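Page header: ASSEMBLY MODEL / two components / 230 residues total.
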Amino acid sequence: KAGVTQTPRYLIKTRGQQVTLSCSPISGHRSVSWYQQTPGQGLQFLFEYFSETQRNKGNFPGRFSGRQFSNSRSEMNVSTLELGDSALYLCASISGTGGARTEAFFGQGTRLTVV
Amino acid sequence: AQSVAQPEDQVNVAEGNPLTVKCTYSVSGNPYLFWYVQYPNRGLQFLLKYITGDNLVKGSYGFEAEFNKSQTSFHLKKPSALVSDSALYFCAVRDGTGGYQKVTFGTGTKLQVIP
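Prediction written out in full:
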């Protein structure tokens, strides 16, 4: 079956602009998590959506937002971009609903560069 | 709150030698533990997980990990390292008690296998 699809793969934006990243989870998965990966901070949890509802949120400013659609596809948006937002943004498609069978399957990520 | 520590930023090992990548964790409930590997410019790939049962867990590509409850550790091991094992390794934990909890990742350990 198809894996996790993140688009676009690479993006260059200017400070102050906004950006929207997309993630299509594995068919049948209802939960999606987003992570920011930078060399200095490692993997930082952004938020998680389950059935169109935000279930968990990390410690990021309000410029970072997300949503999930009825088909489980998710988008994350970053407004008023800053240089420090340059990172690899990873989406994880989560199987199960929190029990022992729950696993995270990652997409290849979107590399965002803010100039 | 749950947390993961990977005390080594980098581990160097000669090809053919055994390797160990260390991970310790902290959760208030039952730990669900995971190891992921990341190759350059790629997303994270699942290696193995511990949910319950045998303390020694076997995973992909000949990797295994040992769960030690008293030391709250989940070290990743391989009997004989390959150059192709060179990558970034992440340990992760989720509290398996009391409903859904997000996954927390360590900061990653870069494994360098020297020919």
